[in-house]
Write a structure and sequence with these properties.
The longest helix is centred in the first third of the chain and has 14 residues. Strands 1, 2, 3, 4, 5, 6, 7, 8, 9 and 10 form a 10-stranded mixed β-sheet that branches. The radius of gyration is 15 Å and the shape is globular. It has about 140 residues and is mostly beta strands. Helices cover about 10% and strands about 55% of the residues. The chain has a single domain, classed as Immunoglobulin-like (Sandwich).
């Protein structure tokens, strides 16, 4: 498959995907939200999702919360001197008309004090500067 076909398929998947894990009520849509509990007790878990801003105004994710998780931080990865490091960020810009992906090796949610178990769904509440709170069901994997 050539690159243009792959890009077209991915774009179609992100923009027209059925409503699994997706919210249509807010200005920013949340797609494919998933959480991974910690592998070892006392270690943080991680969360991934796709944010799509279909409005004409820029926004930013500033917080996340899930019942049973003590604290959630927004993180990114940076490469410095040949080493990849995680860094906490206070906000994640979600520009108007664009998609922001939380994925391994990039933006992600760090879950501290996670009391959730694999194999279910939990409410994930995201707080945006402009859109306010948007709650979706996140799959716990």
């Amino acid at each position: 498959m050539n690159r243009s076909v792959l890009i077209a398929i991915f774009s179609l998947f992100v923009l027209v995907m059925p409503a699994y894990g997706e919210d249509h009520s807010g200005a920013v849509h949340v797609v494919s939200a998933s959480l991974k509990p910690p592998l070892l007790e006392g270690r943080p878990g991680v969360g991934y999702m796709i944010l799509r801003n279909d409005t004409g105004a820029d926004d930013a994710l500033v917080a996340a919360a899930v019942p049973g998780i003590e604290r959630i931080e927004l993180h990114t990865h940076e490469h410095a001197d040949g080493v990849m490091r995680m860094r906490r960020v206070e906000r994640v810009p979600v520009p108007a008309g664009e998609t922001v992906t939380f994925e391994p090796g990039g933006l992600h949610l760090m879950l501290f004090g996670a009391e959730v178990k694999s194999g279910g769904m939990v409410p994930l509440t995201l707080t945006f500067e402009t859109a306010g709170q948007v709650t979706v069901e996140a799959e716990v994997r």
